[in-house]
Design brief:
alpha+beta, Beta-Lactamase, Heat Shock Protein 90, 3 domains, five-stranded mixed β-sheet, 10 helices, 12 strands, about 25% strand, elongated, binds adenosine-5'-diphosphate, HisK_dim/P_dom, phosphorelay sensor kinase activity, PAC, kinase
């Protein structure tokens, strides 16, 4: 007679095994989900390849949208990277698994963007002739890492280019000084010694040479100074009230002769590079005086405004103003709206200011109305 009692432990054992299996699968799926990896299981002989839903989600597809077939991934891998993946597989098989199947390849996302994938796998079954019959592996999305690497590379290239440019500008302007000094001193000598022997035209031409070479010398000096900005920078705690006081002392004679009034409001203490910040305000204040209206004396207001992550300082004047179409262009090097016979200058002051604010990771822009005045806005990060 049969013993039905024996059936119960077997069923129980099966049940327990089933539970264990479910538990393992649950752990495996959770690991996959938390690492955001996908996996694949390739039955080589049957030419069937299971791809996990997480594998497909990585490229923007739902599970049912991509058939479980080796051709599927071959269709969405970047064509330039397919040979690399095939070679890695061949090396792995030829070495009987000693060389790992491990490569970084690009795939196309459903939206057309590139997804970088770290793809690793191994053959887990071989036939009696040592041909692979089953291989499994994983896919990890490494796009953010690749993007960060690209940005880092780009930043390095930019830094190098910048250094080269700085060097070039320095050498060019430095070497230009010497022949220029010669032109200036000999034209002075010529005018001192021979002016009586020259006719009217000769004197006039000589004056042109002198003024053009003096102007060129100013431009070259400006370039050299532009280059020097930030070279010996020292981070400091700066009281802007004090900085403006020093600038007022430096500009005392033009402030007095033009009857300029400077009003300070709510100026903060900031972190920055002292020498550069002083130069910044010196340029803005002297411009506010220089570009005044002929009929009224300049009124300049320098005010601090507290932002969430920055201090904004505005420097406002009641001068001639700047037409809207030039309000961005004036920050470029040597860009001027007036020629030298109208108002003197080299056109480098605002380029200095821009470079100084870049150095501080801040911003500088202008808002202005012709005939009413201009407000230069400066933002220092806190
Ligand atoms: P520069 O003062 O030597 O001409 P800047 O680079 O300091 O050179 O200024 C560039 C141009 O921007 C000036 O030539 C002028 O046309 C304009 N500008 C600058 N500041 C003001 C201002 N406060 N009011 C009106 N125009 C200004």
């Amino acid at each position: 007679m049969r013993q039905p009692i024996q059936k119960i432990p077997l069923e129980q054992e099966l049940h327990q095994l089933q539970n264990k299996l479910n538990d393992k699968e649950m752990v495996f799926n959770n690991i996959l989900e938390s690492t955001m990896a996908g996996y694949w299981d390739w039955h080589i002989a049957e030419n069937h390849e299971y791809m996990s839903p997480t594998f497909k989600h990585m490229f923007g597809y739902e599970d049912h949208e991509l058939p479980n077939h080796p051709e599927t991934w071959q269709n969405i891998i970047h064509p330039e990277d397919l040979p690399k993946a095939i070679k890695s597989f061949e090396d792995h098989v030829r070495s009987k698994g000693v060389i790992p199947y491990d490569n970084e390849v690009r795939y196309f996302h459903k939206d057309g963007s590139i997804v970088w994938v770290l793809c690793r796998g191994k053959v887990i079954e071989w036939d009696e002739n040592e041909n692979p019959i089953r291989m499994v592996g994983s896919h990890v999305d490494i796009t953010p890492i690749k993007k960060a690497e690209e940005i880092e590379k780009y930043v390095k290239e930019l830094e190098n280019k910048n250094k080269e440019l700085e060097q070039f500008a320095y050498v060019a302007s430095h070497d230009l000084q010497e022949p220029l000094r010669t032109v200036i001193s000999y034209s002075e000598l010529l005018s001192r010694t021979y002016s009586k022997q020259l006719d009217e035209n000769g004197v006039r031409f000589l004056r042109y040479i002198e003024s053009a070479s003096t102007r060129m010398s100013d431009l070259v000096k400006g370039l050299l100074e532009y280059n020097r900005i930030g070279r010996n920078k020292e981070w400091d705690i700066i009281n802007l009230n004090e900085v403006i006081q020093f600038v007022e002392q430096d500009l005392a004679s033009s402030i007095e002769s033009t009857k300029t009034k400077i009003h300070l409001k709510n100026l903060p203490i900031i972190k920055g590079y002292r020498t550069e910040v002083r130069l910044l305000f010196q340029n803005l204040i002297s411009n506010a005086i220089k570009f005044r209206k002929p009929t009224i004396s300049p009124q300049i207001t320098i005010a601090g405004h507290k932002g969430k992550n920055f201090w904004e300082i505005t420097v406002s004047d009641n001068g001639i103003g700047i037409p809207e179409e030039y309000q961005e262009k004036i920050f470029a090097i040597f860009r001027r709206l007036h020629n030298n016979s109208e108002i003197e200058g080299t056109g480098i002051g605002l380029a200095h200011c821009k470079k100084i604010m870049d150095l501080h990771g801040g911003k500088l822009w202008v808002s202005s109305k012709v005939e009413e005045g201009s407000t230069f806005h400066i933002q220092f990060p806190k």
